[in-house]
Write a structure and sequence with these properties.
Helix content: over 70%
Distance between the termini: 42 Å
Structural class: mainly alpha
Largest sheet: none
Shape: elongated
Number of helices: 9
Number of domains: 1
């Protein structure tokens, strides 16, 4: 199977389960288990395949946003109901103190910006719940943050989709070299995930 065949095969999967993939990818990506999948890449693929018109771009954007937003809301509710139990379990006391201070001084700003950054977003949402930050305000700012992040990923993929014909032409010309490039990208993503996993383990 060539790269072009793989692109078409993955497209078939997206045509069947694209919205579910977008929802789950963004939901998991925002959680502490985000290092286990290339969530951003999966969302970008959704945008890429939506360019053909066989998938709704609005649908991919909507489900990507809802997945990310759901995780933020769950993190808030979890923090509100468990207090600092998870913070202590995962040894995140220092981050909790910083998050609390930032929320007190820069509530709206820190909620919107920090929830777009890896590793901090889940815990800031969690601490917002622990500290009893206004739920209605949290809903608004977390909605903005999740919409901005998911839209960025999907739009990048959509723009790449506009160059699909050219990309396929290049891959066809490259032949076996395209597989080497594909493997190199896969190894890079694996190493990035492995690095993030080690970082999580060291924080525990």
């Amino acid at each position: 199977m060539g790269i072009l065949d793989l692109i078409n095969a993955v497209e078939g999967i997206y045509l069947l389960y694209g919205y579910t993939i977008a929802f789950l990818a963004s939901l998991i990506e925002i959680s502490p288990m985000g290092w286990t999948i290339p969530g951003g890449t999966l969302l970008a693929l959704g945008g890429f395949y939506a360019y053909s018109g066989k998938l709704s771009l609005l649908g991919i954007l909507l489900f990507s946003w809802l997945g990310a937003w759901s995780t933020f809301i769950l993190a808030y509710l979890l923090g509100n109901s468990t207090g600092y139990a998870l913070v202590k379990k995962f040894r995140q006391e220092e981050k909790a103190k910083k998050a609390k201070l930032l929320l007190e001084r820069h509530g709206a700003t820190i909620l919107t910006t920090s929830m777009m950054a890896n590793f901090t977003r889940f815990w800031v949402a969690y601490i917002a719940g622990t500290e009893g930050y206004s739920f209605l305000r949290f809903l608004f700012y977390s909605a903005v943050a999740s919409l901005a992040w998911s839209s960025l990923m999907v739009v990048v993929g959509y723009l790449a989709g506009s160059e699909r014909a050219r990309l396929q032409w290049v891959l066809a010309k490259l032949g076996i070299l395209s597989w080497i490039i594909f493997a190199a990208v896969g190894i890079f993503l694996y190493l990035m995930a492995r690095r993030d996993f080690k970082a999580v383990k060291q924080e525990k």
